[in-house]
Amino acid sequence: MKYRLMDLLACPICKRFPLKLIVLEEKKRDEGVKPPKNTCEEYCGYKRIWVRELPEKPCVECYSVEVVEGVLICPECNRWYPIMEEIPHMLPDELRNEREDKEFLRKYKDRLPREVLDHGKPFNLST
Question: What is the CATH number of domain 3-89?
């Protein structure tokens, strides 16, 4: 997932923006990749800061790194969305795969916050 998406993604259930990002694995992109002309407008997911608070604009550091595995967390409704193989899985509860989600939680249980593991929606390791 490109960090740039953090400027666009909101919780599909409660519409909260921005979401909290936990990076579990990232990779460097090819050196020859040029950043697009559009940069973050409101929120910089790479630096986890509002764009208005950045010392320099536009910032293009994030275009050389991508999130391979991670979690997006909604601080409002406590839903979590896995990022697997560079793709954020932001489905509504009824379309989520409980087995797949719980496997993801077990795989990364030592690196995820307790609130997700114990109380995350729609699935957690306590249910």
Answer: 2.20.25.10
